[in-house]
Design brief:
With 162 residues, the chain is mainly alpha-helical. The protein contains six helices and two strands, in the order αααββααα. A two-stranded antiparallel ribbon has the order 1-2. α1 packs parallel to α5, α2 runs antiparallel to α3 and α2 runs parallel beside α4. The longest helix is centred in the first third of the chain and has 33 residues. The protein is elongated and about 65 Å long.
């Protein structure tokens, strides 16, 4: 009975982790959706949720697979592959056209949302939340600040929205 109760609380914790990851990724995605960028709410939501799930699976999904003391579990391996996979997805959002590179901010946003998801999957809610706040500050507040103080060059505003 004790193990069932422990299993219930562990499952609840895992669900909470993917929920928080999806929520934080979704909030960042809403900002990108509002700006009509290549990757919006759904992409950021799914990347954060998937990254959290991969982290949980990496850390807890293979516990029963270890049958001897000679085997070691390296929970960082799946997380490292998430970084690689997200890099591939991010590369698909980068476009070079008319001597301008577009989509770098979107690619970086998807990349950092994956990291936020991994942090949630590891149970690091405060770190994930702080990172999300910083991302939103970097995307919104800094953009607002630059627009306010860069009124000399109207062509620069298109670059800031990249």
């Amino acid at each position: 009975m004790c193990t069932q109760k422990g299993h219930f609380f562990m499952t609840y914790e895992f669900i909470l982790r993917i929920f928080v990851a999806a929520l934080l990724g979704g909030i960042i995605g809403l900002e990108r959706e509002y700006r009509a960028k290549e990757a919006g709410f759904r992409t950021h939501f799914l990347v954060a949720l998937g990254s959290a799930l991969f982290m949980i699976i990496s850390a807890y999904g293979f516990e029963g697979a270890l049958t001897s003391a000679e085997h070691r579990l390296d929970v960082s391996r799946i997380a490292a592959q998430v970084v690689t996979g997200i890099g591939f997805i991010g590369a698909g959002t980068i476009i070079f056209q008319k001597n301008a590179v577009r989509g770098l901010t979107t690619a970086a946003g998807v990349w950092v949302v994956a990291a936020i998801g991994l942090a949630c999957g590891a149970g690091m809610y405060e770190l994930a939340t702080a990172a999300s706040v910083l991302v939103l500050l970097g995307l919104e507040a800094f953009n607002y600040f630059l627009r306010k103080f860069d009124s000399k060059s109207p062509d620069r505003h298109a670059e800031l929205d990249e």
